[in-house]
Amino acid sequence: ALLCSYTVIAQDNEKTKSEMSADTTKKQNSDKDKDKKKSKTYQDLVTDSTKTMVGMVTVHLTDDKYYFEIPDSIFGRDIMAITRVAKTPTGAGYGGEQANRQVIRFEKGPKKKVFLRVVHYVNISSDTSETIHTAVVNSNEHPIAAAFDIEVTRPDTSVLVDVTSFFEDVTQALSFSPFFKQYYKLQKPEKDRTYIESIRAYPINVEVRTIQTYSVTPPSISSSSNRSPAVDLVGGVSSGALTFELNTSMILLPKNPMRPRFFDQRVGIFANSYTVYNDEQQRSEDQVFAVRWKLEPKNEADTERQKNGEIIEPKKPIVFYIDPATPAKWRPYLKQGVEDWQQAFEQAGWSNAIQAKDWPQADTTMSLEDARYSVIRYFASDIQNAYGPNVHDPRSGEIIESHIGWYHDVMRLVKNWYTTQTAAVDPKARPNIFEDDLMGKLVRFVSAHEVGHTLGLRHNFGASHATPVEKLRDQKWLEENGHTSSIMDYARFNYVAQPEDGVTDLIGRVGAYDRWAIEWNYKPIYDTDSPKEDQVVLNQWYLDKAAGQPSLHFLTERSTFDPRAQSEDIGDNSMVASEYGIENLKRILPNAIDWTREEAKDFTRAEEVYDNIFGQFRRYIGHVTKWVGGIFDTPKTYDQAGAVFEPAPHDMQKSAVLFLQKHLFQPPTWLINKEITNKLKAENGVKRIADLQESTINSLYRTDRLQRLIDSKVTYPTAYGLEEFFTDMQNGIWSELYAGIGTNVYRRNLQKIHLQKLIDLLDAAEDSDGTISSFYRSTSSVDPLLTDIRSLALGTLIELHADLKKQARKSSDRMTKFHFEDCMMRIEKALDLED
Question: Which residues make beta-bridge pairs with 250?
Fold first, then answer.
């Protein structure tokens, strides 16, 4: 027993010694590994077989591993990271579109780490010596998006970090947003199918191209009506995965940001902002500054020439390249749209400041996704649109680059617009397929508009209001001025000109306002030391050049209730302009079949023409409706006299109501041409007209509009007021009742719609969706129970009930009698009246 016990103990002791020996060996090997790692040299990682590209950050590729050699000069510098989709699955956007944009910053952390932070400019204190700077920093910590082990340190020069897993594991800051992933049901990246295609270094940027494959949530069968808005893409359904090719451009922002130019609400320039704090303030300040490209003279001699009023070429012009995927015949027109802005820059003191070039396909050092280059990207898409964004430095507003998105079917859009608005006067607007010269002019028109956005210009929907309507019929005047002073207006084409006028100038172009806005944004200001001093100069420019010139005014995106600022309209009087427009629609509609006729084809194209005509008529109705309760909203500074807010003239508002009575409430039966509609629609248009009447009445009786009528009458006794509006609407809509004549189906529908709206006004308030902010203004809806709105609605219903009761007995028309009795009973039910 003793021997056995000893043996067991001896065996246990031997096992322990063995394990201890193994642990010791493991520890020694681990220590050797650590020592080996500690002793790793630059030559260990950057070998003779390493592929190296020197740039902002030098990139090394060794044994399938990518290393960034980050120089000390880059730490703490702001870098703009712009991620674009180079290739995308069907249905998930288009190659060339932006997927993400962040400002990032490398910094050295503890424990031999390099951190990558995502930087947000929301609150700043630019002077680090001020006491409040510490408080700002303490409340605005930038998130650490990634951490890297320092592999090698080169004293006083740089550090090496392995970035392979960073890009292969897909970091949110340089990939898709969470919303994008949810929308397309993207789950985690599949590592075996996600890899780095290439990383290239250049003097001020690094270009990273990755292939990212995601598993997707499988589609589900659900009977629930609350279906998820997420999309099942065909690739995900067929394979359970989606693959994207992405390109991230990491561009070094200037060490010293461009001096900002403070935003002015009287000039339509896109803006950025942040809240500024300093020790001398008594309140924080929102600093809002315009976005613009940095143009500067080549040398001191040019600076002096420009000071003396000469036009000079900039050191670095704005250059747009044309995507080689663009059909060759449209490229010259896209380039013309870019270079149409040269005249505007000349007014600002710059020649050849903006240029268009074909993409140099033979140059393999250039990439369409490289954010150093601005490109008009061509998308094979049936989307009828184009867009012109810009990427700018959030610290100063300096535009870094732009990729204009050009969808193939934007040509279909402009073709439909041009036919609907001008075919009455331009025979070239009538065929199914436009001649290349005409389509080219339309492409140029859209190109110039989108380029304007990339230069910093907002839409100016008020520009066309500066043009008197009758001048739209004057060819000589149009040749000199165009039908709107801004191509940034949604003025589209001249729909006012009549066939007898001989007008051929129908397409918009860069105008007087556009040249002024570019001058304001890009003309250098010399002999000042700060943005605040610049602001004084800019204000004086406005007072001297623009304040007294309506064609140079900016009216848009501030107000939802200024009838001068409307999209898709032209001229200074919507009622007169729309009258002319309707006359042209009446000329076009009867030709919808003949102009679209194709052998062995159905009536699809004719139906498209008809729908566009109806849509254009709807726009005219909308333009006129906005005048009722309209408030002019004219941005001003303390230097300018007069009101900022004042009601639209009484006569204009009254004429708007009369226009609606004539052209909409009296049924527009010209839209129901049975020789056309019986080939296109199963119904003959009665409901379609009623729907338009209903939406217009709902808009007219919105409580925010009615409240403006109340306010206007109190402040301006001669203004168009609520009571007059109710009377005009009542007399027009119920004219058969007061005249003792029969009704038709269109009028009976209208009267029921109007009656129901009056009854609705007796109830609780609409939900308020109005907001007031620095750039966008609207008015809130109100509770009709607490205003004269309900009183007028109630009084009108009581009077209407009495009139219906009297007339129903006299009416000889059977349907009219039934209609009046029906309406009378509805009022009795709403008011709980006893017979």
Answer: 81, 206
Contact assessment for residue 452 and residue 337, using Cβ atoms and an 8 Å cutoff: no
How many other β-carbons are positioned within 10 Å of the β-carbon of residue 658? 14
Name the β-bridge partners of 206.
Answer: 201, 250
Three-state secondary structure readout of 556-614: CCCECCCCCCCCCCCCCCHHHHHHHHHHHHHHHHHHCCHHHCCCCCCCHHHHHHHHHHH
Phi, psi of 271 (to 5 degrees): -140, 160
Give backbone dihedrals phi and psi of 25, rounded to 5 degrees, phi first. -60, -45
d(CA 33, CA 26): 10
The structure's pTM equals 0.89
In angstroms, the Cα distances linking 590 to 130, 395, 585, 606, 609 are: 74, 57, 9, 11, 11
What's the whole-number average pLDDT of the chain?
Answer: 90
**Contacts (Cβ under 8 Å, ≥6 apart) of 455:** 292, 293, 318, 341, 354, 390, 399, 518, 521
Could you give the CA distance from residue 375 to residue 96 in angstroms, rounded to a whole number? 9
Longest dimension (CA), the chain: 130
Confidence of residue 13 (pLDDT cuts 50, 70, 90): very low
Phi, psi of 15 (to 5 degrees): -65, -45
**How many CB atoms within 10 Å of residue 515?**
20
Q: CA–CA separation, 239 vs 190, rounded Å?
A: 13
Nearest CA-CA partner of 801 in 781, 829, 824: 824
Cα gap 593→673, rounded to integer Å: 11
Is residue 422 a contact partner of residue 495, using CB atoms and an 8 Å limit?
A: yes
Q: Residue 39: is its pLDDT beyond 60?
A: yes
Confidence of residue 19 (pLDDT cuts 50, 70, 90): low
Q: Which residues contact 528 (CB under 8 A, 6 or more apart)?
A: 534, 537
3-class SS at 33? helix
pLDDT at 431: 96
Q: How far apart are CA 62 and CA 34, in angstroms?
A: 21
* C-alpha closest to that of 630 among 457, 458, 766, 462: 462
Collapsing DSSP states into helix, strand and coil, what is residue 403? strand
Q: Are strands 318-322 and 374-379 parallel, antiparallel or unpaired?
A: parallel
- Backbone CA torsion sign across 708, 714, 719, 725: positive
What CA–CA distance (Å, rounded) separates 832 from 830? Answer: 6
Residue 575 φ/ψ, nearest 5 degrees: -70, -45
Instruction: Report in angstroms the alpha-carbon separations of 100 from 166, 167, 201, 207.
Output: 17, 15, 20, 14
- Cβ neighbours of residue 499 closer than 8 Å, sequence gap 6 or more: 424, 425, 587
For residue 510, pLDDT beyond 80: yes
DSSP helix, strand, coil percent of the chain (3-state; round to 5)? 45, 20, 40
Digit-coded pLDDT (tens) for 608-646: 999 999 999 999 999 999 999 999 999 999 999 999 999
| CB 409, CB 443: distance < 8 Å | no
Q: What DSSP string describes 102-127?
A: EEEEEEEETTTEEEEEEE--SEE---
- d(CA 71, CA 806) in angstroms, rounded, equals 92
Any idea which residue has 């004293």 for tokens?
155
Instruction: Please report the pLDDT score of residue 133 as a whole number.
Output: 80
pLDDT higher than threshold 60 for residue 36: no
Q: What is the mean pLDDT of residues 277-292?
A: 86
Using pLDDT thresholds of 50, 70 and 90, give the confidence band for residue 9: very low
Phi/psi of residue 690, each to 5°?
-60, -40
What's the pLDDT score for residue 1? 41
Phi-psi group of 276: left, alpha or beta (phi > 0 → left; psi -120 to 50 → alpha; rest → beta): beta
Is-contact 833 800, C-beta < 8 A? no
Taking the C-alpha atoms of residue 97 and residue 372, their distance in angstroms, rounded to an integer, is 15
Nearest to 505 by CA among 422, 588, 620: 422
